[in-house]
Input
Amino acid sequence: MKRISIFLAAICLLASAAAAYEKIDFKIQLLSAGFMKPAAVAVAGGKVFVADSKANAVFVFDAAGKQIKKIEGGLKGPEAVTFGAGRVYVADTGNSRVAVFDPEGKLLWAFSGDGSAPGQLDSPRGIAYGPDNRLYVSNTGNARVDVFNSDGIYLYGFPTAKTDGVTKLNPAKLSLNRAGEIFVSDPDKALLQKYDRAGRLVREYPVANNGAVADKRGQLYLINYKEGKVREFSDAGETIGTFGTKGKGKLEFRGLRDIAIDEAGSLYLCDDENKKVVAINLESAETGPELPLAPLLDRFMVKGPADRYAFKADVFAVTPDNKVVAYMPEAKEIVLLAEGTKKTLVREGKLQGQVRSPRGIFIDPKGMIYVADTGNDRVQIFNPDGTFSNMFGESGSGDGQFKGPASVAVNAKGNIYVADTRNRKVKAFSPDGIFLFAVGPEVGNLILSNPVAVRCDENKNVYVLDAALKKVVVLDAMGKFLRIWDDSGSLQDPASLTYDGKGFFYILDRATFNVKIFDEAGKFTASFFAKGRGERELWAPQYMAFRNDKIYISDMENARILSFDISYLPEEPFDLTAEAGEKSVKLAWKAKANAWTNGSRVYRRRGTEGEFKEAGSAKAKAFEDAALASDATYYYYVAGLSVTGAQGGISAPAAVYFKGPEVTAEAAAVQAETRNVAPMEILPVELNYIFSANYKYYQKNPVGRIAVVNNTDSDFTNVKLSFNFRDFMDFPSDTIVKEVKAKSKTEVDLSATLNNRVLNITEDTPIQCQLTLTYYQDGAEKTFTLNQPVKVLSKNAIVWDKPARLANFITTKDTPVVGFSRYALNEKNKFEDETSFLNENALTALMVWEALGEQGLGYLADPVSPYAVLKSSKEMVLDTVQFPRSTLKLKSGDCDDLTALFASILEASGVHVALLDYPAHISMMFDTGSSDAREVGIPEEYLIKHNNTWWVGLETTMVGKDFYDAVKHQADLFRRSKDEVRVIDVRAAWAEFEPVTLPEAEAEAYPDKARYIARVKEAAAALLKARYDYFKDYFGKILLENPGDVDANLNLGMLTARSGEAAAAVKYFNDVLAKEPFNSAALNNLGNVSFEEKKYDDAKKFYFDAAKADPYDAEIWLNLARASEKLGKKEDVRTFAERAAKMDPALKSTGDKLLK
Output
């Protein structure tokens, strides 16, 4: 192409000498007679798309600059355009929506609309299709960025504000780099911001700009409308170079409105004043690493709508063959909907086979229809054709009676469970409708208020959704309380619960106009949809059902039921290994599996620049690849597959050298002539990321591993390997490889002494490491150099390959942590009386729990990447953990943040802590130091035995709630997951992952001390009562079977005595004495009761009888001394106290106090 030499010279003069590019070439100019105000440009697939905000159109050009199409489709002032998934997405700014077109310009659909609710738009001025197949939209008027999937279904959004967290921004143009980082421009405030995909502000650039794009290496290019200039920016915000000038010339700019970049790195500059788009090539000498491709964050993909039923229906269910059985409230009948037709099955009425205002319909695998006949206070069962089969129930509150039943479900055994809403119970029946049992209103520590939905899983557990409590309660098949979901996903008006049969539950939340997905443990996983009248939005959602990998939702006001295809996106496989044999390469890997997963797909690449190709698929976690060329290095990748065929995230690569079968000398000579390969090569084996917070760790441990590959027929000795990180090592690290045999490879650990500049990294930063081999061949020195991308992670970064890494964030010596510990515990001695039943470490934990509750700490799940989603991923950039000081300041955090905070404060208080690493969760437990469960003060059922002592688990996400509930929840989770949970001793973990040393900081303001003390007393009283209720029930059941049981009577006597029920206590102790007249424990406790009632003579008599029954119990003799002291018998005090001290010297100090 002819070069525009005059303008090129001008650009070269204007460009900074420090720029990463060496030459700028004109590529092409796009012009159209239809241009009026070109506002945006996008480039993909060899086509260029230009949105014109005045012409209300998108112009499409081919690679040669020829206009091939004009897209209109009712656009009004479009200011942004992007391309992805084979579609054109236009920010239809004037209509406050996004319009979607096919490549031929046909309008497919539009989504969203004017409004301020989540998912609604106000004059969007930016749009970008991300590398993660999501659509990111600048919601300009609402000061946020909203994220949709490729079908336009709303996922989540996040606010845009300055670093002060207060000043709102009005985002205009936005773009994403290869790693998924989001760049948002606000021209009015002269700011460019970088966010991660969780919506966390990573960096703010105070620079006048009208938009920016990043190349594959992360280099930024900013445009300035008024100046007509393009600035090259480093990720750190430094100007590297500037080019362009203001003017009307062919390659001058008067109003740079947008910028885009193609796969080759060419820039496309949109100039609205000159009505043109100019493309230029930047020729660069930079060879730095590309940014890693953004990993998938989604666990579920929703596509559709797949089916449409244009009927005004309320509750409904789906048959095994995908027909819909629905209640039509206006027609007051239950109908069958299929292929656009409607057939009446059941009419309104009070008679058998008629219904009134049903609130729940369930269809079992055989097609039998179960109806919660709400208006008639009964349940009816119909055959698949709608004919009557059975019914049970009547109005009332007794067994087998209902008041407003709202939901019905059937488990695998055919047992029927009904949400008896107005009776606030769940009732169970046999398949024939025979009453079995009822649960509620009291369930666990909750009282059911408005149970509206009930579902069963394949383990026959029962899940009950309470709309008023905004909770899900889990029972076993016999109604035993198991647990409560605590991660409720911020439910506001939950209306419907359904189960996919593969381990995940779906809740329709009418107030937020979306569907939330939870795993069977109750951990929030994803959410979809937002308010709107479009087919991908919800306006008046009523009910929801799941069948055959589809979710169905009824929307009353829009008079429709829509179905959407649901696909699970499996987590990335990990620990991928590749082993070369003579004729093939064998792969093995690990992967999380569930009922949704269905094998894996294998990819390979020959060399670092080879084509990424599919090698095959595998049902097992192993694969053998024989379709290989000899004498080559291959990189393998694996991705999990869903039962629907959807592909999940791709694993980290495994590299392997394949020598192949032996070849003849003649063939080898031919190969040598045709193959361009270095005699010695470096092959990365394990070199992915570095944790800046753990830089001292690398002084003793390798940062990674490489393989030195000898491609020749000769051996090499004393090969020098030099390794260097630019900016973060003061000098290279050298390793001498003693010998590398011919046609073989030798693996080498990489050591590095990192300087303290690595601690200045505040965000994940890709850097280039340089590896150089120096060796001698035929007497001449030769070198081989490899530049390898490595990511240095910020101080807050963590990868969950080793959950023990969390120990880095357990900062016991951090000043805010120490200060809060002292605040919480400095008046611990005030609670000795109220908490005498509690182990000292348990009291410490209780006080810390209540102090953090009073501080206002709360659990806040990451709305985008919950811990459960990230836990097992092997990508380089995965998650961040707040330091405890930050959690104290922000007063909220995810499960990992809260666990680090609790562990820090407890360890700072001298309490031994261990992390509890679950497959999709992390929490903690603390050591009571006691080997006797009775000394802890918490029922043994809720304790965890570990290393010969009893530990107490704490569900840290329940902070601010009842301490005892958090203990019980964690005990239940530990018990259910005992084969999967891993216990990580924090003190042992510190040996590898030393906590970060942070600069001193001022402590946050502490809560009012008086309120805190009152809160602790209240919590201690509640714990005592809960303990009392538990043991009273426990021993009471024993006495029902064996009224004379001595141990049960003794324990109940002590419990009732401690709770102030003296008369009941005396009865229990007397029942013991009736069976064992000389039971010293009963006699001693009767003395204690009399002592508390100030009947000291009676007390002394009981103590004396107890001492006769057991003369070797020092505590009894000390009790005699106490009673004698109250009676003024000084000599008796001395006699009894001395006898007690002889038996137990530890009691001497107490006796001395009595004598004084």
